[in-house]
Design brief:
54% of the residues lie in helices and 28% in strands. It has helices at residues 2-69, 75-83, 120-131, and strands spanning 92-102, 106-118, 136-146, 154-165. 11% of the residues are buried.
């Protein structure tokens, strides 16, 4: 009789330990699924940040490459480099340097450029050339008016800046 009671207690004990072990494993499994979900959201956020970082890195590299290609002495030479290949050198009325700014690691030279009697296509070509020049040029301010002599032509007054390393 004692053997039967011991055997029953052993079976009941093993069932209880098995149930407790199953409950423990289920709770660990649920906890791990929750952690996995959190890690997947973090991974998605990191992928988004990585894409943004790579985009910014490419833009910075492009600017750095422009800096290394620049062999320009000043803003007047830079404007000549922009307008001469377009064949618009004769349409540039004036290039007036307006000053320089000393920034942390760069010098910014500004000039007011007046261009007369250009059509819309030539204006687009000017802005495209400024944007894709081998040195860092930025357009600070632009005023576009129709020409007095011919309303289909434009007179452009713009302030451009050349950024070059110290």
């Amino acid at each position: 009789m004692r053997l039967k009671v011991d055997r029953r207690l052993f079976i009941a004990g093993s069932i209880a330990v098995t149930v407790i072990l199953c409950i423990f494993l289920v709770s660990i499994s649920l906890s791990l699924k929750k952690d996995l979900g959190n890690l997947k959201t973090q991974q998605k956020e990191l992928f988004l940040i990585n894409d943004e970082f790579m985009s910014l890195k490419n833009r910075v590299d492009a600017v750095e490459n422009k800096k290394s290609l620049a062999k320009i002495e000043g803003i007047v030479q830079a404007t000549d480099e922009v307008f001469q290949p377009l064949g618009l050198k004769k349409k540039v009325k004036s290039v007036k340097p307006t000053g320089t700014k000393d920034l942390k690691e760069t010098i910014e030279e500004e000039a007011e450029v007046q261009v007369e009697k250009v059509d819309m296509n030539e204006m687009v070509n000017i802005f495209h050339k400024i944007e894709n020049s081998p040195f860092i040029l930025s357009v600070k301010k632009t005023t576009i008016k129709t020409s007095f002599e011919n309303p289909s032509l434009l007179d452009i007054t713009m302030t451009i800046a050349l950024v070059k390393p110290k």
